[in-house]
């Protein structure tokens, strides 16, 4: 099988598994991939993709959700070296119409579950819903569950992490009393503060 994706050090979970699985179940796919605006690693394959959403999107295969038997059937088709590009492997499989239909492969075009930040920063807005911070995709009106700071968007992901999933809000900081340690004089202190207000990074 292809090499496993690297550990997700650049991901925030904005909601729990119930919401994620609810979106996945209603979508009808057997295996759903995240999507982004960049056709990596072979840009020339972009025109081969089926019709897409409001903006041009192609798979970002490092983020997926699906049924284990479907994932297994897909990865069993790996016939390359361990250091070959796994995204190109998945791209070629997805572009096979017969295989795409047989395995029930689909892309999360509307960011129902996955939000890749690279190429989509202007679409991402921070809202406070019932006092709870939540990221929304302004283009599609969705509230993605998995926020991926891919490419050069680590600063923006870090900024969002000050609020999502349970950080700063107009009502205070939901997470600030977690894992605090007594100071030398016996008092409890926490120095967590937002490192960069999200409002400075995107237009309202």
From TrEMBL:
Organism lineage: Eukaryota, Metazoa, Chordata, Craniata, Vertebrata
Every PLOD1-3-like GT domain range: 8-171
Coiled-coil residue windows: none
Annotated Pfam families: GT_PLOD
UniProt cross-references to InterPro entries, sorted A to Z: Collagen_mod_GT25 (IPR050757), GT_PLOD (IPR057589)
Name of the protein: PLOD1-3-like GT domain-containing protein
Signal peptide: none
């Amino acid at each position: 099988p292809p090499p496993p994706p690297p550990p997700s050090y650049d991901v925030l979970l904005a909601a729990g598994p119930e919401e994620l699985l609810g979106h996945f179940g209603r979508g009808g796919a057997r295996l759903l991939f995240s999507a982004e605006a960049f056709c990596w690693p072979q840009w020339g394959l972009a025109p081969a993709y089926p019709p897409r959403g409001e903006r041009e999107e192609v798979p970002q295969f490092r983020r997926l959700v699906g049924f284990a038997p479907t994932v297994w059937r897909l990865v069993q088709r790996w016939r390359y070296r361990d250091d070959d590009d796994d995204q190109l492997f998945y791209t070629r499989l997805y572009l096979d119409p017969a295989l795409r239909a047989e395995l029930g492969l689909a892309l999360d075009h509307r960011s129902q579950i996955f939000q890749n930040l690279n190429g989509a920063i202007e679409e991402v807005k921070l809202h406070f819903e019932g006092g709870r911070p939540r990221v929304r995709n302004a283009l599609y009106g969705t509230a993605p569950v998995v926020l991926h700071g891919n490419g050069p968007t680590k600063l923006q992901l870090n900024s969002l992490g000050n609020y999502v999933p349970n950080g700063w809000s107009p009502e205070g900081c939901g997470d600030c009393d977690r894992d605090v340690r007594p100071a030398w004089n016996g008092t409890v202190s926490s120095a967590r503060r937002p490192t960069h207000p999200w409002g400075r990074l995107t237009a309202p």
